[in-house]
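Dear Dr. H.,

I hope your travels went smoothly. While you were away I took the liberty of generating a structure for the chain from your last submission, since the lab meeting agenda had it listed for discussion. I wanted you to have the full record in hand beforehand rather than looking at slides cold. The sequence, exactly as received, is reproduced here:
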Amino acid sequence: MINKIKAVSLFTGAGGMDVGFERAGVTVVFANEIVKEAAETYSANHIGGVMVNDDINNIIDDLDKFQGIDLVFGGPPCQGFSVAGKMDPDDERSKLIFTFLDVIEKVKPKAFVMENVKALGILEKWEPIRKKYLDRVRSLGYNCAPFILNATEYGVSQKRERVFFVGIRDNLDPFFEHNIRELIEQQKNQAPVIRELLASLGKAGTDENPDTCTAKITFATHPIMRKSPYAGMYFNGQGRPINIDGYANTLPASMGGNKTPFVDEEYLYGDAVSDWVVDYHKGLVDGTVTPEFEEAPKRLRRITIKEAARIQSFPEDYIFCGNKGRIYTQIGNAVPCKLAEVVAKAVIKYMSQN
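The corresponding predicted structure, in token form, is as follows:
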């Protein structure tokens, strides 16, 4: 077994990926994040002073001292590849996956893990980028494969699908991809539904669960209907209702205002026998309800910072810095801690066996 696995963390954000890797036994010796508040959050929870708040291009030459380290991991900004964004290959942020590889070339770690949106791993549109990325990785001496994971299968109550590129240096294992996948899938652990996950926090507005998003929930005058009450657009803004008896959709980095998902609090805590959203949707579908309201009933409210952090599987005592909007963004941008832990454990176990 590898003793005291040391790692460099890039595009660290608030540190969701780091929490997972640390739980798997990794010691982070250097972390880098460009956004001031996210870097402050990281430092508030990691007292070792390893965070450097700067543009990665400004610090890349300082990384020589970490040559041959066990691991480099991180999640470069993914807006350029996201189906939720403009999907612009010329977006400056799309180039950062190659900046990540510049670090790999310089540091030559034994292994690396790079997280990104699912689209980068599967969409035909990104096939040339994916090929360019994998070709470069192999030219640097790494056996590498992308793994697409759904967070709900690994203990995270959120339908968040992400790709993890895993690379191992000087690895000639012909069954590399199969073996890593097996080590990941051995850790499958179905997530609790939202009701179960949030139950112990209690209603919003308490010390335990402060109400942190005041954006009103109003109705769309011309609703766009879908089969599911949790899809479609029959409320204004991009914040969608969450299925309390199921999982949240991917929490967006744009949370904080009317893009913040919402819940039926009375149904969540058992005071109501049905979800108001489901009943309203049914009424719209069968024509017994006319969309004429201006504001939704008070029982519908935006999820709190505490709830968002729990959905992303952050530790309960995790400290977030910055204003409320910045905190919501940090949480939405994070890699779910439990999902990162699964990947880290698989990579570490693989390295110890090969």
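Two observations you may find useful: The two ends are 10 Å apart (CA to CA). The first helix runs from residue 16 to 23.

With kind regards,
E. W.
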